[in-house]
What does this fold into?
Amino acid sequence: MNKLSLFPLLFSALLFTACTPDPDPEKPADVSTTEKTAPAKTIAADFPYTFEQVAAHTWVMHGPLALPNPENRGFMNNPGVVETTAGLVIIDPGSTVHVGRHVLAQIKTISDKPVAAVFNTHIHGDHWLGNQAIREAFPGVKIYGHPNMRAAVADGEGENWVSLMESMTEGASKGTKVVAPDSNADNTDSIRVGDTTFRIHYYGVAHTNGDIMIEVVENSVIFLGDNVLAKRLPRMSDGTFQGSIDSINTVLKKDIKTWVPGHGPTGDKAMVRDFLNYVSLVYAAAKQAFEDDLDSSDVISITRRTTAAYKDWSGYEEQLGPHGAQAFAEVEAAEF
Ligand SMILES: [Zn+2]
It folds into this structure.
């Protein structure tokens, strides 16, 4: 399929869960001390998003609900920061160079340490186009991504995301350039940064074909990327239902205390199981429709009943139809 034709679909994948950030209008972005090696230019001080501590040495800037637009400047994901003895580690620095600079400015409220490494969870640009700001400020920083994600960037996906972000924000993202991950992170890798271990979990195609989940071992926290969302339903068209279910079930066996979704509020295993339950219900409805010799449109009427508890989640009405059709196609493909 033509990649560009996937674009509106990809974008719908970004119908993201918001959380309730804790804006502090009294605390403007610290522009003057943002960057040590490049001129600082951050989003205006009315951009309210700040880091909240979610675990020992671990903070998350929970992004907003809305789709990228001129007001939110494209920001919508959950950038994370982990403090180690060797410096700070950023997970998913956001959707544009400007958001990345805002993340760097806000990090100054946590620590003056330099950024030692960056992880990108997957190919969707709302998570990683902020790499540019981190590389500007810390030219030697290592940026990790799954090999499949790196291949997709090499194949032009990053440029597609830059264009898409620019049109959605009506130019607010202008100046953003593709800065790809330069280092591989794959399943079973344990990457040490100072006193801290970043253990990579990758169990095949889930939300996309290159999602890494990053466990910060000593802090008992895991960054799930878009494999798990809270209070928001994602587009599934770059991944699979069965793969998502398998990946989430596998990672749920780990003894970890704090779970950070790609969008939406940080939580515990109950938050993860809540999302798993939704994708499982859709897949079960598709199986039932297939076995009863119904068709994909019947999946929607079944899931409208079985997933009623999720009707207030953002994206529910938009996604119910596409989710049912995709799950039905997956079941059909699995049967033949
Ligand atoms: Zn995504």
